[in-house]
Records
---
Amino acid sequence: MVIAVLEMIANIAAGFWDVLGEMAPYLLLGFVVAGVLHVFIPQKMVERQLGGRRVWPVVKATIFGIPLPLCSCGVIPVAASLRRSGASRGATTSFLLSTPQTGVDSILVTYSLLGPVFAVFRPLAALVTGVLGGSLVSAVECDEEVKTTAGSSCEDNCGLEATRGAKFSRALSYGLVTLPRDIGGALLVGLFIAALIGTFVPNDFLAGVLGGGILAMLVMMALGIPVYVCATGSVPVAAALIAKGVSPGAALVFLMTGPATNAAALATVWKIMGKCTTFIYLGTIVVTALAAGFALDFIFKFGGTVPALSAPTTLSTSFKSVSAVALLVILGFAVLKRSPYSGAAPAGETEALPDGEAVVLRISGMTCSHCVESVSRALRECPGVQAVTVSLQKGEGVVKGEDLDADELVRAVEGLGYKAAVSEYNAPNARVKE
C-alpha cells in the first residue's frame, strides 16, 4: 500500500516536472517580453489610439490587446480606464474580448506544449473574436448610457519620470516579479491538474467519453465560461486533455472561453458597459469559440497531423531543467511574496505621502497588480490629489491632498467596476488609522 502511494506521488511529480520543463524556457522569455511591453507601451498611448466609432479603432484595440499579459479580471479596470479616457464602446469591447485570451507569455507556452499550429491559431482566433465583437457593438445602438469619470491630467507614467535604464529595471521587475505574482498561483494549479490528469486518466479514455464534435466543445465551454481560468495556466490542462483523447478543437474552446470569461468579469462588464454590450460580448465568445474549434479540428483532420505536445526544438534536457528550476524559484518567490500573512505590501503599491487631508477607502474586487495600478491611476486623476497608496492585501486605498472630494474618489474607483466606500476622512496632519 505504501509502495503504491509512493509510486503514485512519484508519477504525479514526474508529470509535473515534464510539463514544467517543456514550458519553462518559453515562459521565462515571455515574462521578460511582457515586462518590456508593459513599460515601453504606456496605457496613455493606447488610449489615444482608440477613440472614434469606425472599424479601425476596433482593429487597433484588438492588436494592442493580443500580446498584453492581462487576465479576465485584470483586463476589466484597464478597459474601463480606456472607456473613461475616450475609447469607443466597440474598441473597448474588442480589447475586453481579445486581451485575456492570449498574451506573449501564453503564446510562447502554447508553442512549447501544443506546437506551432496551435500557437499561431490561438492569437488569430483572439483577433477574429475581438474584431467581430467590437464591430457588432459599434454597429448596434445600445440604449444604456455608461457613467464614466472625467478625463485625465495624468501623463503616460502618472508623473513618474524614468531614464531608459530605470525603465529596463522596471520591465524586469514587472516581468519577473509582478506578473508571476499575478498568475503564479493559477499556473501552479494548472500544472498540478495536468499532472493529475496524466497520472490517473488512462490514455484515450476521454476520446470515448468526449472526443470531438459539438458535445465535447459544449462541455468545455460549460467548464470555461463561469470560472476563472488563466490564459497561461490553462495550457498545461489543455495539453493533458488532448493527450487523453479530447479533440484539439474542444481544447481550443476551453482555451478561448476560460480566460475570456468568468462570472465576476461578466458582472463587471454588465456594470461598466451595459447589458446590451454584455450580451454581444458573451454571444461573440460562444460563436467564435465554436467556429474556431471546428476550424482547428478540420485543419488537423484533413492535414493529416496531430497537435505536437511539445515544441519542435533542440533545447537540451539540462537547459530545460535549469529553466524549470529558475521558473519554480521565481514563482515560489512571487507566490510567497503575495501571501496575506506577509507584513510588507508588494513592491510598487506605496509611495511617500505628504501631510494634508487623508481619505481612506475600502475597495473590494481587486485581484492583481493591474487592478492596483488602475485604481491608483484613477484616484490620482481626481482633483486635489497629491499622493495615493493602494494595498491589494488590505483592500484599501489611502488618498492625501487638499480639498478632496470623497464622493468623487468613490466614483472614480467604482467607474472601474470595483466597489468602494469611505472608511475614514482625516483632518489635516491627522494620522491614518491602520
Note: Residues 38 and 171 are 7 Å apart (CA to CA).
---
Amino acid sequence: MSVARSPLDEARFGIASARSSVSNLAEMDEVMTFCEAEAIRFLIARCPAQELRLVQHMEQRGFLLMDTLLYYARRVDQTWPTVPHRLRLATEADAEQIKEIAVEAFRGYGGHYHADARLDPALCDDLYVDWAYRSCTVRGVADAVLVSEDDTRTTGFVTLRRNNPMEGEIMLSGVSPAAQGQGLGRSLIIGALDQGAIMGMERMIVSTQITNLASQKIWSRLGFDVAHAYYTFHRWFD
C-alpha cells in the first residue's frame, strides 16, 4: 500500500489531493485514515482489477470508477523491425515543440482526469501537456525522451522511465496531426525499445485505457503481451 499527497494535482486543481495504490481492505482503511488526517478533498486510487471484493468495497464507500488501465510487457532482448523514421534523443531545446505536439495529442484524452465531471477539462488537458514539457526540462520526470523529426520540425515524441535496474516503462507518446497516418506511433515504440536496450533494460512495459484499441494493436504486433490490469477510482471528500 502507498498513499501520499499529490503536489502536482494540488497545484493544478487548487485542492488538497492525494494518490494511493491499494490491494486489500486493510490498506483501504489506512488510506481513508490518511485522507481524514490530511484533510484531503480529492483522492486518486488504483487497485488490481482482479481484486473484486476490494472494488465492491470501494464502490460502497463512495469511490467512482474512472478508467481501466491495461499493462502490456515484452522482453527487450527480442528482435523488432527497423525504424523507418528519423529518431534521436531529445534535449531541453526540444521542449517547446514537444509541448505543441502534446497540446494536440492530449486534448480531451480519455484518461481518468477527463472522466471526472468535477474536474475542468482544460486543466486536465494542461496536466498532460505539462508532463510532456517537464519530461525534457526537469530531471527525474523521465529517464529518456526520444523525438522523431523530418527536414523542418519535430513530428512526435515518446518518454521513458526506469522503474528498476531491469525494467523500463513507456510513459507518454504523441504524434503531430500533420504526421499521423504514416506509422510514426509504431516507430516511436520501436525507438523506445532500442533506447531501453541501450540503457541495459531487460523488460519494457506500457499501459493505456482499455478503450484505446489503436495503441494496443500496435503493441501486440510488436510482441507485447497483456500483463495485468488496474482500475482507477476517484473519491471526493465534501
Note: The mean pLDDT is 95.
---
Amino acid sequence: MVLKAQVERLGETKWWEYLVRFIFGGLVTVVAGAIAKEFGAVVGGLFLAFPGIFPASVTLVERHEKEKKQRHGFSGVRRGRMLSAVIALGAALGSIGLLAFSGLAAWLLPHSGAWQALGAATLGWLALSVLAWMLRRHLRDRAPASVR
C-alpha cells in the first residue's frame, strides 16, 4: 500500500469528526492532569504520552475509506482496515522515535541550552522513526509473499 498526502481530501472530513478528535484529545489531557495531580507529574506524564487523537482519527480514516469504496460498488472493509493498520504501524514506529526524543532530552537538558537539547532530541526522534520505518520496509520486502 502506497501512502501519499492528498490535501483535497481534507474537505471530506465533516465538522463533527474534527469535534470528536478535539473532545477525545481534550479528555485524554484532562485525565492525564487528574492522574498527575493525584500521583505526581512523572506518572501523569506517562498518561499524557497516550495519543489523544489517534484512536478517533484511525476509526474515522477507516470509515472514510469504506465509504469511498462503497461509492464504487465495493465493500471497502478490507481497504479501510488495511489503511488503519498502516496508520497504526506508523504511530507505533513514531513512538519508538519518541523514546529517542525523551532519552536525548533528559540526557542533554542538564548539560546544554534548552533549544540545543530539544533540537538534538527532535533530530534523534526523526532519525530513529525513519530508521524504524526503513527497517520495517526491509523486513517486509524480505518476507515470503504469503506473509506480506
Note: Residues 61 and 84 are 7 Å apart (CA to CA).
